[in-house]
Amino acid sequence: MMGFNVLRTTPLSICSSNTKPIFSIPLRPSLFNIQKHRFLRGGVVVMASSASGPVQKSEEEWRAILSPQQFRILRQKGTEYPGTGEYDNFFGEGVYKCAGCGTPLYKSTTKFHSGCGWPAFFEGLPGAIKRHADPDGMRIEITCAACGGHLGHVFKGEGFATPTDERHCVNSISLKFSSADS
């Protein structure tokens, strides 16, 4: 069954016990990818969840199993600083899995050195990665197909000598490496 997220397009009011707003927070729906509209009624947009794969957890469950940094990147679409990730200059043989749910994402044979400061891959395992246009239309976000965890972005046509002419620029913290020896 597909999960749904609700995005309010009207201001969010924080109420006291007598239901009068204490203060109101205006929401900016332009910050969200609203290409997946299902209907709009009464200031509420219902969207297909980005985590509509087989692994679905509440925010509290994700916070319990992920480090604060993993949560910021995987669940809140953050980015680690370039050159700081564990796998940027790591080239062991094996498989890179989603740090959130353990789904295999990339073979080590698809990893290459791009010099960008993040691990780079030219393709993911079939069906393991979903692509979503960023709201600004400038980039393509990549997420784990199983849990919806944010991985990074994919760039095309940069001239790297790879079979796909793509660079999956992935946050190290979004990955866990499993050695071919294990």
Automatic annotation (TrEMBL):
GO MF annotation list: metal ion binding; peptide-methionine (R)-S-oxide reductase activity
Domain MsrB span(s) in chain numbering: 59-180
Cofactor needs: Zn(2+)
Record bears the keyword Transcription: no
Ranges that cross the membrane: none
Record field: catalytic activity: L-methionyl-[protein] + [thioredoxin]-disulfide + H2O = L-methionyl-(R)-S-oxide-[protein] + [thioredoxin]-dithiol
Binding note for cofactor: Binds 1 zinc ion per subunit.
Keywords assigned by UniProt, alphabetized: Electron transport, Metal-binding, Oxidoreductase, Redox-active center, Transport, Zinc
GO annotation, biological process: protein repair; response to oxidative stress
EC number: 1.8.4.12
Family: Belongs to the MsrB Met sulfoxide reductase family.
PANTHER family assigned: PEPTIDE METHIONINE SULFOXIDE REDUCTASE 2
Function of the protein: Catalyzes the reduction of methionine sulfoxide (MetSO) to methionine in proteins. Plays a protective role against oxidative stress by restoring activity to proteins that have been inactivated by methionine oxidation. MSRB family specifically reduces the MetSO R-enantiomer.
The protein's name in its UniProt record: Peptide-methionine (R)-S-oxide reductase
Species whose genome carries this gene: Lupinus luteus (European yellow lupine)
The organism's taxonomic lineage, starting at the top: Eukaryota, Viridiplantae, Streptophyta, Embryophyta, Tracheophyta
